[in-house]
Amino acid sequence: MDGADRSARPSWSDRLRRDALAREATAMRRHVRQVQQRDGVFVHVDGRRLVNFSSNDYLGLAQHLDLTAALQECAAYSGVGSTASHLVCGHHREHVRLEELAAEWQKYPRALLFGSGYLANLGVLQALLRDGDLCVQDKLNHACLLDGARFSGADLKRYPHLDLDAAQRQLRTRPDATALIASDGVFSMDGDLAPLPLLALLARSEDALLYIDDAHGVGVIGPYGRGSVAQAGLGVRDVPLQMITLGKALGGYGALVLGTEELIEAIAQRARPYLFTTALPPALAAASCAAIELVRGESWRRLKLSALVKRFRRGAAQLGLPLLDSGTPIQPIVLGENQAALDASIALERAGFLVAAIRPPTVAPGSARLRVTLSAAHEETQIDALLDALEKCCKPRNTAAAG
Ligand SMILES: *Cc1c(COP(=O)(O)O)cnc(C)c1O
């Protein structure tokens, strides 16, 4: 062993220390909170009981008795683990039941269950795209759509948020390439909707495949809670492929990709995050079946949630808070600097509310925000109390910001 050679290699601990200092300097360090207990919209965090305005449990289903009963019953006879990947021997009847139920609910020919939304996006893009293909995406798409495109080896182009003229120009730079357009249906950090009818038109006119990630739309909007594609009056002919997650409004864990028989079969054969991972525990699939039955069968949660969203927006507008143009339960308050968002989040926590500060790289630099999320499990009085606290914690610094 030659000592000189060893000292030439950069040191891991130097690098990690430098990175940690940079995170501190830019208020980017992340603190993982421990949730000791959860009781509807209340969370016990660091010894305090807070009203939770940060979760994606938009319908309050994560603790619904139908879901926990389905989970427990299934676990009682099938145990916990699925014990293998789908193609080996991990594909249980609850998985099949969930895929069939979801396809029927969404009016899509076929559904394929993935371990999570993250894995689904990696799997879909890697399975369908090859080196030299073109993948066009909205700049505000969720990180896993970007990661999926990178994983696929395709040429990734990102258009400015909602700018379909730019998307069209990007597609036309490579008219001979096999192309896929991917977009969030509801943007996870802004809460606004993708222009789905126009995206479908663009995809058709450019012979590109349209893939919609509806993690935040499913359960919340659309007829029978089908999500943003159905809300736009579209179906499998306009959006041949979409992904819904089970971990947000549906209160469970996992994700389903819905599409034509041909697309789903290709994904099932090729998607590495489907093939080379253990299947979801069957009991979780059973819980998601119960969730879909509730979402499809009962509209009152969606109606209540939509009334709460309107109440929050009305109140926030009266206070001059800088709201974004969102009609969904995602109601961000953009404060700009990382430290401003962190300070506001800490002040809200002191006042009894859990509202996460979202900073880069999750959002663009200079657009750090409080990401307020509403749930059908909230009460009007809790919305009003949050508005009171917001008035004290983040008064707009100037009228321009409030406009
Ligand atoms: C949360 C989210 C995902 C990831 O889903 P998980 O099931 O949490 O892995 C994918 N896309 C979007 C838009 C999301 O918000």
UniProtKB/TrEMBL annotation:
Swiss-Prot/TrEMBL GO biological process terms: biotin biosynthetic process
- The modified positions for N6-(pyridoxal phosphate)lysine read K248
Instruction: Write down the required cofactor(s).
Output: pyridoxal 5'-phosphate
Binding residue positions for pyridoxal 5'-phosphate: G117, Y118, S188, H216, T245
* Keyword Acyltransferase found: yes
Q: Which pathway does it take part in?
A: Cofactor biosynthesis; biotin biosynthesis
In the record, what terms sit under GO molecular function?
Answer: 8-amino-7-oxononanoate synthase activity; pyridoxal phosphate binding
Transferase as a keyword? yes
Pfam assignment, any one: Aminotran_1_2
Give start and end of each Aminotransferase class I/classII large domain. Answer: 50-390
Residue stretches spanning the membrane: none
Q: Where does substrate bind?
A: R30, H142, T362
Q: What Enzyme Commission number(s) does the record list for this chain?
A: 2.3.1.47
Looking up InterPro entries in the UniProt record yields: Aminotrans_II_pyridoxalP_BS, Aminotransferase_I/II_large, AON_synthase_class-II, AONS_Archaea/Proteobacteria, AONS_Proteobacteria, PyrdxlP-dep_Trfase, PyrdxlP-dep_Trfase_major, PyrdxlP-dep_Trfase_small
* Keywords from the named record: Acyltransferase, Biotin biosynthesis, Pyridoxal phosphate, Transferase
Reactions catalysed: 6-carboxyhexanoyl-[ACP] + L-alanine + H(+) = (8S)-8-amino-7-oxononanoate + holo-[ACP] + CO2
- Hey, which family's this protein in? Belongs to the class-II pyridoxal-phosphate-dependent aminotransferase family. BioF subfamily.
Subunit composition? Homodimer.
State its role. Catalyzes the decarboxylative condensation of pimeloyl-[acyl-carrier protein] and L-alanine to produce 8-amino-7-oxononanoate (AON), [acyl-carrier protein], and carbon dioxide.
Q: Which PANTHER family did the record assign?
A: 8-AMINO-7-OXONONANOATE SYNTHASE, CLASS II AMINOTRANSFERASE/8-AMINO-7-OXONONANOATE SYNTHASE
Know the name of this protein? 8-amino-7-oxononanoate synthase
- Origin organism of this chain? Chiayiivirga flava
What are the top taxonomic ranks of the organism?
Answer: Bacteria, Pseudomonadati, Pseudomonadota, Gammaproteobacteria, Lysobacterales
Q: List the gene name.
A: bioF
